[in-house]
Design brief:
By secondary structure, this protein is an alpha+beta fold. It contains 3 helices and 3 strands; from the N terminus they run αααβββ.
């Protein structure tokens, strides 16, 4: 619903996530992601849609799936 409300495509956020643009993360979380990429751990990105909703993308450690979710769904 958040992406529909914003009129944005999930691909827009997935491309950023895949390229290592982790979005709105603090320095510690960015460092955790860099470590996770190097060591095969779970990766988290956080973005704000144009409508102001926050969305998270989480890629599993085995890279089998990436999930879009709202913070209150975690």
């Amino acid at each position: 619903m958040a992406l529909l409300r914003a009129g944005q495509s999930p691909v827009q956020f997935l491309e950023r996530h895949v390229c290592g643009d982790w979005g709105d993360l603090c320095a510690e979380d960015v460092a955790e992601n860099e470590y996770a990429v190097a060591h095969g751990l779970r990766i988290l990105s956080s973005y704000t849609t144009s409508a102001g909703d926050r969305i998270w993308l989480i890629t599993e450690a085995d890279r089998s799936a990436t999930t879009f979710l709202l913070p209150d769904e975690y």
